[in-house]
Amino acid sequence: MTFGITYAMIAILLFMAITFIQSGYDKVMDWKGNVGWLKGHFAETFLKNMVPSAVFIILVLEAVAGALSVIGVIELLVSGGTDFAFYAACLSAVTLLFLLLGQRVAKDYDGARTIVIYFIPVVLLLSWL
User: In 3-108, which residue ranges form alpha helices assigned H by DSSP?
Assistant: First the structure.
């Protein structure tokens, strides 16, 4: 693997770590605010009664994806291995797909478009791995 690709993979892993750890932290620190806003967001959908459990599932996925991303950076730097980077990218893709599904169900097409912006580097990382 070339140094350029390794540095690019580290950059994407750091991007994913920052994105998911901050998002998870926000959910923990403002649980009521997030759940309250999302209850309104999904009020007209089949998800309206599942918001707290869905937010918890997303929180866990984000926390694990963020942690795997950090471990992936360390693994790349220490040994050049990519196992944790691959796990991080896979879980990040799953997490973003769940978020995309939620935005589409809520008919928040601008929000869905934003998720795609995050999805592109994850797919790029998966293609390198």
Answer: 3-29, 31-41, 51-78, 83-105
**Ranges of residues in the chain whose predicted pLDDT is under 70:** 1
The rounded distance, in Å, linking the Cα atoms of 37 and 124 is 32
pLDDT at 1: 64
Q: What's the alpha-carbon Rg for the chain, to the nearest Å? A: 16
Closest CA to 83 of 73, 94, 92: 73
In sequence order, the 6+-apart residues with CB closer than 8 A to the CB of 20 are: 62, 63, 65, 66, 69, 92, 95
Q: Among 54, 67, 82, which residue's Cα sits nearest to residue 21? A: 67
Say whether pTM exceeds 0.70. yes
Q: Which of 13, 19, 23 is nearest to 83 (CA)?
A: 13
Structure confidence at residue 38 (pLDDT): 92
Q: Write down the residue that tokens 């007209």 correspond to.
A: 44
Buried b / exposed e along 59-86 (16+ C-beta atoms within 10 A): bebbbbbbbbbbbbbebbeeeeebebbb
